[in-house]
Amino acid sequence: MYKFLLIFILFSSVLPHNDSAQKKVISQAKQYIKSGKDLDKAEKIITDLLNDSLQIKDRQKAQNILFDILKAKYEQGNELLYLKHPYDTISHYTTIIKMFNALEKLDSIDESSNLNPKYKEKHAHYLYPLRPNLYYGGLFFIRKEDYKRAYLFCEKYIESANTSLFVNVYKQESDSLMAKAAAWTVYCGYKLNDYERLMKYSSLAVKDTAQLAFVYQYMAEGYKQIGDYTKYADLLEIGFNKYPTFPFFFPRLIDYYNDIGNYEKSMSIVDKALEVDSTNINYMFAKSTILLNTGKYDECIDLCKKLIEENDSLAEAYYNFGVSYYNQAIALDKYQQRSKKNKDRIRELYSMSKPLLERFRELAPEQKNKWFPILYTIYLNLNMGEEFDEINRLK
Hints:
This protein has helices at about 1-35, 40-50, 55-80, 90-110, 120-125, 130-145, 145-160, 180-190, 195-200, 200-205, 210-225, 230-240, 250-260, 265-275, 280-295, 295-310, 315-335, 340-365, 370-380, 385-390.
């Protein structure tokens, strides 16, 4: 009996002490707010208090005071900015996002209890006009290349629209920044090589028509990152169909279908691109490569002639041109070399290929893996001793 009584007395003596300490912290924080000084200290002591095990009523009170501290910091910062005095912009934006977090936690406490959320409407009307600052904070950190923080700001802008705090003030039809913020989360996810972040708000990001080509680009890269090449190709095709002249989609789409040997699909894409711009050298060159790969050498030669007329320094056009002759020579040499007529034709084809591959070598010396084996074979078959000796030394 004595033991239980002693425990009760000890327990009772601790409670008032804790309650007294909490009241002292809250009182001190209020004094800081009133004076407008040491607001960082005020934020710290209230944050520490909130990390303690408080009763719901006390937690509600402390959370509300934390918001008042952050509000005071924000308004001080605003005044400094208005007066064009030096101010820490990072700190300013950080305070704004903390304000949103503080009120969302307060609202969560109110929702999970039977307490009357008497400050909710007042807080909502104060904070809601500041919501665009979350978006602009995201842009600020993107310019700083701090993509993690930029993502958090844009995400907070998006998610804050769905909180019960703003249920009576949010107007979706007037929210012109929502899709833009989502597009920037896609960009940040791309820069962070984070597939989940990249894709989280992608369905909303595609509503931002101003940045849609880039959104498709980053989404395509995201699918490639996780090895989903079917969706990668689908996104490339969607992007190409909508933005045929955007530089990202066409070359990668052609490379994808060429790599898997679907030249029919590659050709249909090139032909569509040429319908948009019939004189585009990149489109014409891509078509010449497909013609070369499908053995349509005469058509490839005709197109390469046009390319070189347009740009006589286009290295790859000389390569496709020369290889069209070279491949024909190889085919004849392999299957029909016995007759004198065919031997003369083989020699003729190698001779026509030679200056084209030499020009390619001159324009692209670093691409030795492409010109070396072809010129080696040409010089060997044409009995060009001096040239053969020179290239043989490059082995």
